[in-house]
Amino acid sequence: MSEAQIAHRRLVQSLYKRSLKTAQDWYIDTNLFRRKAVELRMQFDAKSNLRHPREIAQAIQEAERQLTELRHPDPYIAVSAPGGTKFERNIHPNLDEPAAHH
Amino acid sequence: MFRAIRPAALYRSAALYKTAPAVVARNAMALNFARTYASAGLARSDVEKRVLDILAGFNKVDANKIALKANFNADLGLDSLDTVEVVMAIEEEFSIEIPDKDADEIKSAEQAVEYISKREDAH
């Protein structure tokens, strides 16, 4: 795989992951989410045979636009991730190198 | 009901507080300071089992081929989007968020286990 192909794969992977996450935000029910996930997968697979760079760019742009439009106002954030409920809670003090002013 | 507590009993309890030496209070503070938060991280065998269970849950994966060292792409026949689904399932299982940069490095169950054991916030 060339560098450009790897970059493109990463871009599509990121797009797919964000799509699934957005779907998960909107569909709490697992059964509904699975249906949506299968739908998304079909949408991505349908675009996988695009070869012309302009068509690919358009498809990606369209997907990004839809993602922005469907963004959830209160998305699920993993507890320890930035913005999560447990993010940086109970940080252990650094006893080996105390802060300079102490 | 409240009258049942005689003044003498009150005095006695007050005396108890008085006799408690200051040293005890200081020790209590030291104990408070050295508190622990939770049990130690996940056992490696548990992580391995949970990751392999996730793979077993995928209907695209042949159950006989599942192994720690099996490459998602070469051995299990998963494409790049399937790998994203595996990584998302791992994120959900261990309630962590795996950044794309790290997710890109996870190409087998063993690498996933390795990564999770490094993450202290994995549950």
From TrEMBL, chain A:
Segments of skewed composition (Basic and acidic residues): 86-102
Annotated transmembrane regions: none
A Pfam short name: Complex1_LYR
Topology relative to the membrane: Peripheral membrane protein
Its job: Accessory subunit of the mitochondrial membrane respiratory chain NADH dehydrogenase (Complex I), that is believed to be not involved in catalysis. Complex I functions in the transfer of electrons from NADH to the respiratory chain. The immediate electron acceptor for the enzyme is believed to be ubiquinone.
Subunit structure: Mammalian complex I is composed of 45 different subunits.
Name recorded for this polypeptide: NADH dehydrogenase [ubiquinone] 1 beta subcomplex subunit 9
Automatic annotation (TrEMBL), chain B:
Compartments reported by the entry: Mitochondrion
InterPro entries on file: ACP, ACP-like_sf, PP-bd_ACP, Ppantetheine_attach_site
Domain (Carrier): residue spans on this chain: 45-120
Record keywords: Electron transport, Fatty acid biosynthesis, Fatty acid metabolism, Lipid biosynthesis, Lipid metabolism, Mitochondrion, Phosphopantetheine, Phosphoprotein, Transit peptide, Transport
Functional pathway: Lipid metabolism; fatty acid biosynthesis
Presence of keyword Secreted: no
A GO molecular-function descriptor: acyl binding
One cellular component (GO) term of this entry: mitochondrial [2Fe-2S] assembly complex
Stretches that traverse the bilayer: none
UniProt superkingdom: Eukaryota
Family to which this protein belongs: Belongs to the acyl carrier protein (ACP) family.
HAMAP family: Acyl_carrier
Reported function: Carrier of the growing fatty acid chain in fatty acid biosynthesis.
Protein name, UniProt field: Acyl carrier protein
Naturally occurring in which organism (per UniProt): Mortierella hygrophila
Lineage of the species this protein comes from: Eukaryota, Fungi, Fungi incertae sedis, Mucoromycota, Mortierellomycotina
